[in-house]
Amino acid sequence: MTDSDRLRSPFAGMADLSARAPIRVLSPDQIQQILASHQLYLETEYHEGHRANFSSADLTGRDFSGQNLRGIRMDRAVLRGADFTGARLQSANLIGAILEQARLDRADLSRARLSGANLVSASLESACLVKADMEFALMGNAMLRGAKLGEADMSGAQLDAAVLARADLRKANLRGAGFRGARLDGADLRHARLGSAFLVGASLRGADLRGAYMRLAKLDDADLSDANLVGAEGLTQAQLDQAHCSSGTTLPDGLTGVEHAKR
Prior knowledge:
Blueprint: H1 28-43, H2 237-241
């Protein structure tokens, strides 16, 4: 099967991030001065210092672990391989940033702006991304085990082969998001919006999908073993006929799955 023959998310390719500003190169001293001014800005409740602006800066491999970077500007910055482990990035601007293979485990990115960011192969294990804006983010092969993504906007995001086992995705907007081959085992997807989401070959074993909106979601070869879909809206028999269920799969009234899923 050629790439052109493969099923694709209807949202694939919609984000245009081709127009990038010239990359800024900063010396280590300049970086430290900007960070120190940002700390003063936060400590004095914005009365002194300045909000750090690393827009379009090359910060490849930089260590920001454990730092308070709340509200920082890093839009379109090159942060490939950077370490943000345990960092505080609430409301940070990371729109269009390149975060491939970055480490963001246990980082607080609540309400952060990550639209169009490249997080391919990044690690966000147990990170907090509650109410984050992540539309059209590229997150293939990303590690999001145990991440908190409640009410995050991930519409059109690409998460092929990503690991979201035991992630909290309650009320998340996943409209048109791509999850080909992703692992969502034990994930909490209650009342998530999965309309037109692309879950082909995804593993949702034991996932909680109660009240999720699933109209036109692609479930071809998805594993719904032991998943709970009670109250799922927009779900049809035709969708379930393409998925794998088990005797422990709980379905809405009137729908059945493989292995005589219970109702």
